[in-house]
Amino acid sequence: MKLKFLSVIAVGLLFPWGPVHAQEMLTLQQAVKFALDNKKEAKNAKLDLNNAQFKIDEVRAGALPQISGTGSLTYNPLIQQNVIVMEDPVTGQSTSTVIQFGQPWQANSNLQVSQQIFNQALFTGLKAANSTREFYQINKELTDEQLIEKVANAYYQVFQSQLQVATVESNLGNTEKNQRVIQGLVDAGLAKKIDLDRTTVQVNNLKAQLQQAKNGMEIQENALKFAMGMDITTQIDLPEETFAIDPEALETLPIDLSNRTEIRVLEKQAELLELDKKAAIADYYPSLSFSGNLGYMSFAERFPIFNGNATKTTYSAVGLNLSIPIFNGGKTKAQVNQKNVEILRAKTELEDTKLALIMASENARTQVKNSLLTINSNQANVTLAKEVLDNTENNYKNGLATLTELLDAENAYADAQNNLNTSLLDYKVAEVQLIKSKGNLKSLVNE
């Protein structure tokens, strides 16, 4: 059965926004899209996703050849000298000779290259980098969903505030009408002035309630604009539209926890922890790399660069470097044990989150059912309270009811309207939670 009632459907935004603070008629879809483009959380999630690719590039760079060049230029004011003792093989006499090692100027340049051939830690890091990108993608989706939920709930708070303002305005108008009727009866000598005074007090009280309701609505609108990331000074207005509730469609939607972004985030975190454990285990593996270098040296008494008299020489070397871990005091084993504890903790959190999501889904379903029953009851109560008020007004005009009965009837009608407004808000909040439990919050954007 579809129930139709008057509602402010949702907040949104007309693009583009400029410095002129004109009042805009907004929809929920536009509001959410604006939030996804402008709210801090959404922007940071996008930046994290972009940064994930840079992290992948950083890890991948470790698997590529590493090339570096060095150069130096040295001037030696005092050249080191050593003494060489030589013995004459004929006479057996020794002579000492002072020899200078090197030249005052020396230039050196070197090109080095290295390449990882086998490094288990590097290979594991590449896998982890790809999983990290997937994690940030899922985390962005979760951030978007949380933002959609926050904007939708903030909207419905504004919706309730608007209904409260409309209710007080309606009651004020009705009481002012009765005030004018009583004024006529007093002027005709058919009513007491105390009745007029009591009605005037009621009118003044309603005017104060109306101002309080408008202040509350302004506060809720500011909360909504903050949730959207919108300039607080921007003037907005929410359209009034009729929407239909289809509880049967809501009830038939299946619960699929595997589709919940919260679960996917935790599962990806567990996967990253497993890779982190493998990276620690990689310390048990040997590593093999290739290295090579090519160098050039120049010696001269004067500045050696562009000096044709300089003595020049080149050198080069290539090799394989093998590193085999033998014993590190049990450090790697301790690290692996720590990773195991973190994995167990992540699995416990995953199971607890599943239970919490199932509970939230069932609670939302129950709240929707109860809200629908309450809405039906409150709608009937509003109709009945209006009939009682109309009859009481007519009886008062004919002297068959007292002013107290009339004021009580007005208050009862106002209470019935406020109860209906509250039940509408409770339903919409529960509806958002039920849609969330199906992993379908983005449908609020695409409606």
TrEMBL record:
Highest taxon of the lineage: Bacteria
Entry keywords, A to Z: Cell outer membrane, Coiled coil, Membrane, Signal, Transmembrane, Transmembrane beta strand, Transport
Pfam families listed in its UniProt record: OEP
InterPro entries: OMP_efflux, TolC-like
TM regions (residue ranges): none
Name of the protein this chain belongs to: Transporter
Coiled coil: 25-52, 196-223
SUPFAM superfamilies: Outer membrane efflux proteins (OEP) (SSF56954)
Record family assignment: Belongs to the outer membrane factor (OMF) (TC 1.B.17) family.
Signal peptide as annotated in the record: 1-22
Subcellular localization, as worded in the UniProt entry: Cell outer membrane
Gene3D superfamilies per UniProt: Outer membrane efflux proteins (OEP)
